[in-house]
Amino acid sequence: MKQEESVLNVLMYLFKNHLYDGIEADNTDSELIDELESAGFKRQTIYQALGWLGQLGEQSQTPADLPSETQSLRIYTAEECEVLSTECRGLLTYLERHGILKPHTREMVITQALSLQEEGIDSHLIKWVTLLVLFTQPSEKKALASMEFLVLDDPLGLIH
Q: Can you give the residue range of the structural domain that contains 115?
């Protein structure tokens, strides 16, 4: 079965099939790499996705120098506005106002979304990146559950 080639698709596959099993994904796991290739992903894309997860893991272990308050104002740079549409920025604001994201997890989402270097980052990508970021944050179980509901239980990908 041929998969659409993108790092996000590999990440979604890993999330749906492995991350809840506690499998540590890295570039040395030949069994996992073979499985992903059998699922139709190219090795280069697999390595990019595993590198992305490694980068996320490093961010998760780095203490954030950001305020812990739930209310903050994020000013986007011109470069960020070019990549993150108004819809994406609105979604991030929505998630933060509803307690799903905190300032430090919002920044992780932005950093990780931009690092995917996908053309036309859309709200679908932001939702999945948010889900993956929250999954790496043990203290964010309630936020993760809320985000899972928004991503996995909404077949149209809409936020109500």
A: 67-160
